[in-house]
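Structure ticket #2291
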Amino acid sequence: MNITLNSGVKMPLLGFGTNLLREGSQCEQSVLHALHSGYRLIDTAAAYGNEESVGKAIKKSSVKREEIFVTTKFLPTDTGYEKAKRAFETSLKNLGLDYIDLYLIHLPQGDIHSSWTAMEELYKEGKVRAIGVSNFTMNQIQHLCEQHSVIPAVNQVETHPFSQKAEMQKALNSQGVQLESWAPFAQGKNNLFRNERLKALSGKYNKSIAQVVLRWLIQREVVAIPKSATRERIVENFNVFDFELSPDDMTAIQSLDKGSGLIYSV
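Resolution: structure written out below.
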């Protein structure tokens, strides 16, 4: 199941996140399991220190490169025109790829506008298929839109049942920007996996709480990138396309929203 970004590129609604997966066999094997389980979106970042392992897994997977949507990001220490260009080339080399599908500014810090100019050039040169941001507020995105010709394709922010970003999603949609969720399970905070409302829905649909949360995000057309190092959970998290939450149950989850992030407030 895909959505189409404002660049015209199709992006899977469900992907595999690699934050906290260590460089080496753990990350490589987890990404391989994900690709063999059907995931086609793989999310990494320079900050995660595992781009090389992600690249090795992609090569070993036997999945065609054009079928895999790869996202990576650069840090505030690499903002600025020249630094952003160099950071991109480093990530491309680490991943062992000829192009990146989605390149993001990881945090709204440093010389954002010069960085975005560099990213626009990479996009127009075909080295990236889409460019976007992560952890940006709507005001920060608006400033980018006002001063540059390419509108961000994605804003990747903390989004889960306790921080639902409904108003942000409406505002992003009006600008043609896709909302993407990192930490879809809130990193287990606020006892998400013991929440009574989610447990009830888990029982009703005979699915895990994680599957219910991912299905809720997908039905909202929010891209989600759950992470796991456990093969069984990697498979389980992808098994969410054989059921659908009712409108009443979607509304029931809405009532869990606390209006602010538990991990990183935007």
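Closing remark: The domain at 10-189+217-242 is CATH 3.20.20.100 (TIM Barrel).
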